[in-house]
């Protein structure tokens, strides 16, 4: 059961970037070409950046009373709850929802900051990433550094710049960085190469967590192009399974023993099956020359990885195979698939049969350990 004094820490939430973000935090020489919110001819709003025109889907936000809360359609800032984009209002919504602290990913910038990947001007792209981090550190999380946990994005197109940004934001209080669940899907080198070693060295040195949000590869696995968007929902964890396999077998976590890898919004019920199959693969001598890790997958997972649940009865039933130190909780505010403003109520119901000390680990203590809060 959930103890009355628990302070739930959600490891996956989102910031709808306020319209002023890049126009305030970019250096003045970049502002004219930086992301900005414009009014379109049809009366809707959109972000514009280079040749991209991006509108905020209602399903990514929580709307004010009187506006359609359906997941389809476009949301204007005037229709959103201010908690989507304003940190003071976010804290009020967290109080309403029974959530003590949040780790929040970007929306327009995309979950691993990869909106800026492929920019015509790499220096502008890097400046946009840096500006987002300055906003998070100096505006968003500065509103309440205990409850709003700083997560940064990186210029993934330049590994040395990414490593430098890790060191810069760690020195200013960041607790985690977002990375792609599958960089190869974005046209970047895979985890099986040594390309990312400077980045992992920097993360190792600074003791930040590495967060892999579902969809940060730029795509969700689905059967065909004509399969409807809802078809991905039953197997959302598939992206995390692919990512987890790479981290288990490449050997990155043997070379960097302090790294903590966080799988965000991918669920957890898949973990026992994946570990079972990974153990079989690891133990097969025919594959010995293909696997970089020298430690068994279960050991690697237990030491380095956490997964999260919003409501996942399968994961809680198999907690002995996942590990109660490897499971965390998410509210996913302001996305429409979350339970706002009833997250605490749902959390209490889902933890009803879980021993109190185990519930304390899942809902609060594990996140505090992983994010060093």
Describe what is shown at a glance:
The protein has helices at 21-25, 28-31, 87-97, 122-140, 159-170, 197-206, 237-249, 252-255, 271-283, 297-304, 313-317, 319-322, 343-350, 356-370, and strands at residues 9-15, 36-39, 45-49, 52-54, 101-106, 148-149, 151-152, 176-178, 209-213, 260-264, 305-309, 327-329. With 373 residues, it is of the alpha/beta class. The longest helix has 19 residues, at 122-140.
How big is the Rg?
Answer: 20 Å
Biggest sheet, spatial arrangement of strands? 7-8-9-10-11-12
Secondary structure tally: strands: 12
The helix fraction, in percent, is 25-40%
The biggest beta sheet, please?
A: 6 strands, parallel
Distance linking N and C termini: 23 Å
Q: How much is the average pLDDT?
A: 95
How would you classify the helix and strand content by structural class?
alpha/beta
């Amino acid at each position: 059961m959930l103890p009355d004094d628990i302070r739930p820490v959600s490891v996956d939430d989102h910031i709808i970037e306020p319209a002023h973000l890049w126009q305030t935090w970019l250096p003045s020489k970049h502002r004219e070409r930086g992301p900005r919110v414009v009014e379109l001819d049809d009366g809707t709003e959109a972000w514009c950046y280079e040749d991209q025109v991006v509108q905020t889907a209602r399903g990514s936000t929580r709307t004010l009373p009187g506006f359609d809360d359906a997941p389809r359609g476009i949301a204007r800032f005037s229709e959103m709850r201010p908690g989507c984009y304003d940190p003071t209002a976010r804290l009020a919504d967290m109080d309403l929802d029974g959530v003590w602290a949040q780790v929040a990913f970007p929306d327009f910038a995309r979950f691993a900051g990869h909106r800026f990947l492929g920019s015509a001007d790499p220096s502008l792209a890097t400046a946009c990433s840096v500006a987002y981090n300055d906003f998070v550190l100096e505006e968003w999380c500065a509103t309440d550094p205990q409850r709003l946990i700083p997560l940064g994005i990186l210029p993934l197109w330049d590994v040395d710049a990414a490593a430098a940004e890790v060191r810069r934001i760690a020195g200013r209080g960041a607790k985690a960085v977002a990375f792609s669940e599958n960089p190869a899907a974005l046209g970047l080198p895979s985890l099986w190469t040594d390309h990312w070693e400077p980045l992992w060295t920097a993360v190792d040195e600074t003791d930040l967590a590495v967060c892999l949000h579902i969809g940060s590869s730029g795509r969700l696995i689905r059967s065909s192009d004509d399969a409807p968007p809802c078809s991905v929902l039953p197997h959302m964890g598939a992206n995390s399974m692919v990512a987890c396999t790479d981290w288990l077998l490449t050997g990155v976590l043997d070379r960097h023993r302090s790294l903590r890898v966080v799988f965000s919004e991918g669920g957890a019920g898949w973990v026992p099956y994946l570990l079972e199959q990974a153990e079989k693969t690891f133990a097969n001598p025919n594959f010995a020359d293909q696997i970089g890790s020298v430690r068994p997958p279960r050991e690697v997972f237990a030491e380095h990885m956490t997964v999260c649940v919003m409501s996942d009865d399968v994961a809680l039933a198999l907690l002995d195979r996942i590990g109660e130190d490897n499971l965390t909780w998410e509210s996913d505010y302001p996305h429409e698939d979350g339970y706002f403003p009833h997250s605490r109520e749902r959390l209490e119901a889902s933890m009803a049969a879980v021993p109190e000390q185990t519930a304390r680990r899942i809902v609060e203590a594990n996140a505090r350990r992983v994010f060093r809060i």
